[in-house]
Amino acid sequence: MNDAMSIPHLIMNASGVVQAVMLLLLIGSLLSWVVIFQRSFVMRRARKAHREFEDRFWSGVDLNELYRETPVEQETLGTEHIFRAGFREFNRLLPKTRSPQAILDGVQRSMRVAWSREEDRLNLHLVFLATVASSSPYIGLFGTVWGIMGSFQSLSMAQQATLTTVAPWIAEALIATAMGLFAAIPAVIFYNRLSAESSRLLGKYEDFAEEFHSILHRNLQGRGETTEG
Amino acid sequence: MARQHRRVGYGLPTLLAIALHLGILVVSVIRFPSAESEPPSQSIVQATLVSTETTTDQAQRATEPQASSQADETSEDEASREAEEAEAQRQREAEEQRQREAERQRQAEQERAEALEAAQAAAEEAERRAEEARAQAERREQQEAERQRQAEEEARRQREAEEQRRREEEAERQRQAEEEARRQREAEEQRRREEEAAQRAAEAARNSLDRAIAGEAEAAANAEQAQQAANGFINLVRQAVEQAWVIPPNVPDNANALVAIRLGPSGEVFSASIARSSGNSAFDRAAIQAVESAAPFSELRELPASVQRDYREFNLNFRPGDIR
């Protein structure tokens, strides 16, 4: 009895549909954990990079120097990406037009594009996590319902209905629900955590973009006055 | 800066996720059998613990007297030594005395040491004995446990065997019952089939008989019909001849003439001749004329073909009363 009721034994003896459901849930759980780990690493690195870049930015270094520190072809992430996009646009527009408003508009636009790319990058695969979180309990429930249907079908064929004839079926059916919850609970928790983290980082990027924009604006105002005067 | 770590790959997260799942799987697999195998062993230990307590008590009780005697000895020794020391202090000026005293002290000390040693030996002995007793008790208890476990094992095996046997018996009985039911069903089926076959055979036989009877009846009916038809034909012929017959006057009542008639296939008269004369030529002539005027007898064609031939030739007996 001990051997027959152990979890691996129950899983091995489950009907085909229930086994398929379990396999599906296992794959979902595995993939969701891959996403959880990967996103956690990405978020941590993005946070660290943002902090480092802000420290460097506000340390009073010359912006041209800061811009020239990284080669143009190298891909940058996070705040640095936004800064470089804005500054590149600023440098390109500066010799072409005299209107500060046009320059600032161009800078803002390019920074918005960079911000949108960053958002895309941070929220990558989070939708998958949300899907697993919301659908796997239902999939597990389906497995359970199917298993219990099987148990009742076997009950109808049995001469007398004892607990021992139903118990293994119901136990194996309930394993499906347990696996569904097992896949869903971490996915829910980490989806909330990671999406909160992502929106916080994006808010920080936005703040930085505004600050940078105001710096450029100040710079242009000063230049406009000197050229006029 | 975030320059040295550009991208976060999927290799490490995949590895971590697989490791996590494997860990959970291993925990769920390993913990279950051990958790379930523990309770019986625990019960055995609990059962033997009682006996352990009693044996250790006995051992303690055995060591107790020895320990008390040892304590007595040590206290005695202590008293004597103190007394001697006091004496030595008091008689310090007398060297020999002190030496003697010292010697005695030494002796006493030796004695005490010996006593201590003896006591220690005794204690050790007691301890060893206690140890032995405990070991023995332990061994016994282990044996007991072993025996108990074996007994339990045996009981369990027996129970299992019994269970198995009962299940098998039940299965056997069920199978037998099923077999019986099947056999009965088959027998029933067989009987029904046989009955059916018998019924069918009987019906077939009855049918054939009926058919035979019917055939016979039909044949009889046919014959009867033919007979009737033939009779009807003869009657018709006779009626027709009678109607056409003009009996001449002055014929004696006993005049009797037999006319032989031969008919063609369609009923026309081939020949009509006197087979036996009545002796009265007028009567004979009148008979032949009657036959000739009544011809043709087309009713011959309505007769069955089998009897037509028989009625192609017949005789008619003429008498003044009637024709036969």
UniProtKB/TrEMBL annotation, chain A:
<dbReference type="Pfam" id="PF01618">
    <property type="entry name" value="MotA_ExbB"/>
</dbReference>
<feature type="transmembrane region" description="Helical">
    <location>
        <begin position="20"/>
        <end position="42"/>
    </location>
</feature>
<feature type="domain" description="MotA/TolQ/ExbB proton channel">
    <location>
        <begin position="79"/>
        <end position="206"/>
    </location>
</feature>
<keyword id="KW-1133">Transmembrane helix</keyword>
<dbReference type="GO" id="GO:0043213">
    <property type="term" value="P:bacteriocin transport"/>
</dbReference>
<feature type="transmembrane region" description="Helical">
    <location>
        <begin position="126"/>
        <end position="149"/>
    </location>
</feature>
<dbReference type="GO" id="GO:0005886">
    <property type="term" value="C:plasma membrane"/>
</dbReference>
<dbReference type="InterPro" id="IPR050790">
    <property type="entry name" value="ExbB/TolQ_transport"/>
</dbReference>
<comment type="similarity">
    <text>Belongs to the ExbB/TolQ family.</text>
</comment>
<dbReference type="GO" id="GO:0017038">
    <property type="term" value="P:protein import"/>
</dbReference>
<comment type="function">
    <text>Part of the Tol-Pal system, which plays a role in outer membrane invagination during cell division and is important for maintaining outer membrane integrity.</text>
</comment>
<keyword id="KW-0472">Membrane</keyword>
<dbReference type="InterPro" id="IPR014163">
    <property type="entry name" value="Tol-Pal_TolQ"/>
</dbReference>
<comment type="subunit">
    <text>The Tol-Pal system is composed of five core proteins: the inner membrane proteins TolA, TolQ and TolR, the periplasmic protein TolB and the outer membrane protein Pal. They form a network linking the inner and outer membranes and the peptidoglycan layer.</text>
</comment>
<keyword id="KW-0812">Transmembrane</keyword>
<keyword id="KW-0997">Cell inner membrane</keyword>
<keyword id="KW-0132">Cell division</keyword>
<protein>
    <recommendedName>
        <fullName>Tol-Pal system protein TolQ</fullName>
    </recommendedName>
</protein>
<dbReference type="GO" id="GO:0051301">
    <property type="term" value="P:cell division"/>
</dbReference>
<keyword id="KW-0131">Cell cycle</keyword>
<keyword id="KW-1003">Cell membrane</keyword>
<feature type="transmembrane region" description="Helical">
    <location>
        <begin position="169"/>
        <end position="191"/>
    </location>
</feature>
<dbReference type="InterPro" id="IPR002898">
    <property type="entry name" value="MotA_ExbB_proton_chnl"/>
</dbReference>
